[in-house]
């Protein structure tokens, strides 16, 4: 894997992590509905990564 791939992956996860920086009603709803976990799976799939077993 080259440097660009690692940079892209790091950026994607940093953006996902930002959703927890300022939690509010929108985040609460997304987590409760499973929408956040679904988005994390989509990010992982687009980057060719596997999430930990039992995630979401």
UniProtKB/TrEMBL annotation:
Identification of the protein by name: Molecular chaperone TorD
């Amino acid at each position: 894997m080259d440097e660009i791939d690692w940079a892209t992956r790091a950026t994607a996860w940093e953006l996902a992590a930002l959703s927890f920086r300022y939690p509010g009603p929108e985040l609460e709803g997304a987590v409760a509905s499973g929408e956040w976990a679904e988005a994390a799976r989509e990010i992982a799939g687009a980057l060719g990564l596997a999430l930990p077993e039992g995630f979401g």
